[in-house]
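Course assignment 3, question 2. Fill in each field.
Student: A.L.
Task: Predict the tertiary structure for the chain below.
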Amino acid sequence: MKAEYLRKLLFPLEIKEMLPLHDKYRNIVDTKIRETEAILSSDKENCSVPSCSYAGCSYSSTYSEAASHTDTSYKDSARKLLIIGPCSADNEESVIEYLNRLRPIQEQVKSKLLIIPRLYTNKPRTTGDGYKGMLHQPDPSSETDFYNGIIATRRLHIRAVTETGFACADEMLYPDNYEYLDDLIAYVAVGARSVENQQHRLTASALNAPVGMKNPTSGDFSVMLNAIHAAQNPHTFMYRGWEIKSSGNKFAHAILRGYTNKHGEPQPNYHYEDLLRLADMYVNNESYLNPSAIIDVNHANSGKKPFEQPHIVMDIINSMKYNSTIRKLVKGFMVESYLVDGCQSVGGSTYGQSITDPCLGWDKTVRLISDIAENI
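Answer field:
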């Protein structure tokens, strides 16, 4: 190979021994996964969350809201998912502050919404240029450092669970890296540029957590549905030097994020007709399990104009109110939000502002979550 081998990276078992997750916090992750599955399946009879009062649940001193785990509203499939947070998790302290602010909001809307924060530590780049996320650059202003990036991403996800009680979502940019975080993540997204890749599809079939498959940048629904079909079924394939057999991930589902036309212009696919088309495509192929979709209201759906996200969400909610098929199909929303509106360059001095895609700021985020809970 025409490449320079720099250094051997940590194995997943090594980093888990270095940065372990205590058993008392594993219940948080497992419960959030079960809650997410219940919403995606819309099947109250098959809810797999154990009936548990969590009487013995013990949290760190910074997260003492154990009472919230007595809530059983996760058994009500009428709740929706809200996957919300920064475009990329570029700063550990500002991300943890965002999650701590989000915690009381979750308590206020828990009967209507299950919030799963975006903790995206990988950032796909169309041309390969630019900031690629915490995994590549734990310090955004420094050179790539995968060794410390692996440590930084696991440490951030651990802090999220132990300090805020949130098990979070991350993007599967590199399938081989999933095992570094598989005991911490409640939701996985496969991006528009990865969804056609066989290794992503087969790895998704082996994940512990539900996985959302985005439509490709071309907008072709059939490509996305092929990916979902692959992820929902068992496979034998190569993974990290092993021959393994997966059991299938029946909670694999669609994420609509808009698309790019032949002129390179962003186009939405969240409108009423788009949602009905996807519902019909699910129905016309009875092999799909748990037909469901999350709508990403930023990216091409908003033309990367983050302040359009609230009205897009309300447009979708109106479609859900008007048509029961759409209401059954749409299980929630994906929103890009941070402490401060907009974005800045790498190395910018504004604490809590995105260094990748622009995001909604905190005040607009609170208003949006309240509006969703009130209207859903």
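Instructor remarks: Residues 12-375 form a domain with the TIM Barrel fold (CATH 3.20.20.70). Residues 43-76 have pLDDT under 50 and may be disordered.
Grade: pending
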